[in-house]
TrEMBL record:
One of its GO terms (molecular function) is oxidoreductase activity. The keyword Cell inner membrane does not apply. It holds the Pfam family adh_short. InterPro entries: NAD(P)-bd_dom_sf, SDR_fam. Keywords: Oxidoreductase. This is 3-oxoacyl-ACP reductase.
């Protein structure tokens, strides 16, 4: 996304002392709202629908500036307008398809240019188990592994300087209770493929990454955590898989908000809903985490 045309700047007074700069022309035709210097900034990937949308709405209602991300400009801009209209927070939309590493890099670079802080990164974007067919990304990687895991890995690495400079800050990786050990001899699952296996492997990779981040940020006020928000939430992803929903999006959003806000979270923890849980044994295998890190750095070029 690129700025175009001649920008006209105007000041808009919101509330008694709140001052926002608004650029009359911006991304995809939307007005660009710059957060106040004291305003919390939170990026929620995959926030144009389902769980991410509800989390973004709640954060906006708490006064945060929400960076909305998704593939649909229409849905993204609608959510931005909704957040701004409801107040007291603000929002801005960025479009990027996580099936493209180039678009992920462009998203990270744009956020680094446009923002001076990032208090929370919520890696929520995901692709479910359906359809049960092997698909590949623009970069030739198994699609779920890239969208569900590699995208968050790359984006986190790109935004690391902003996250570190914004301490205390958090990284919340939205994973799942569906976890399958990563087969490092066939990470892209070219043999014996199933959508469920691909999804579960990518979700476990997120948890290994979270534990790696906890070690990386040890001694800092950067807090990486992961969670299974709720089982079979009533989302498009679950319905597409032909599964009867068992929980609501509100329940999942409660769990995500808990990890964003609770003062009682320990770096590297994995939650099932609102409670501390136990991930797959491979999550605690240092050798597996090392292999995943080396593989991910090689595939993305990020360090």
């Amino acid at each position: 996304m690129h700025f175009s045309g001649i920008y006209e700047y105007r000041f808009v007074l919101t509330g008694v002392f709140s001052l926002l700069f608004i650029i009359s022309q911006g991304l995809a035709g939307q007005s660009v709202v710059v957060p106040r210097p004291d305003q919390e900034v939170i990026l929620v990937t995959g926030s144009t629908g389902g769980l991410g949308r509800e989390v973004a709405r709640r954060l906006g209602s708490q006064g945060a500036h929400v960076i909305v991300h998704g593939r649909s400009s229409e849905r993204g801009n609608e959510l931005v307008e909704e957040i701004i209209a409801a107040g007291p927070g603000s929002a801005r939309f960025y479009r990027a398809d996580f099936a493209s590493l180039q678009q992920i890099r462009a998203l990270g670079e744009r956020i680094l240019m446009d923002y001076g802080r990032l208090d929370v990164l919520v890696n929520n974007a995901g692709f479910g188990s359906a359809p049960n067919e092997r698909m590949v990304s623009e970069d030739g990687h198994e699609l779920r592994f890239q969208v569900n895991y590699l995208a968050g890995f790359l984006l986190t690495k790109l935004l690391r300087p902003l996250i570190v400079s914004s301490q205390p800050s958090r990284i919340v990786n939205v994973s799942s209770a569906a976890q399958t050990a990563i087969d490092f001899d066939d990470v892209m699952i070219e043999k014996n493929f199933s959508g469920g296996r691909a999804y579960a492997q990518s979700k476990l990779a997120q948890i290994l990454f979270t534990l790696d981040l906890a070690e990386e940020f040890q001694g800092t006020d950067v807090l990486p955590v992961s969670l299974h928000p709720a089982t079979y939430m009533d989302t498009e992803m679950v319905r597409r898989a032909g599964v009867e929903p068992r929980t609501t999006v509100d329940e999942g959003a409660d769990a995500v908000m808990h990890l964003i806000r609770s003062p009682d979270i320990v770096p590297g923890q994995y939650f099932r809903g609102m409670e501390v849980g136990n991930p797959h044994d491979q999550a605690h295998d240092q050798g597996a985490r090392n292999l995943l890190r080396i593989l991910s750095e090689g595939l993305t070029g990020a360090r």
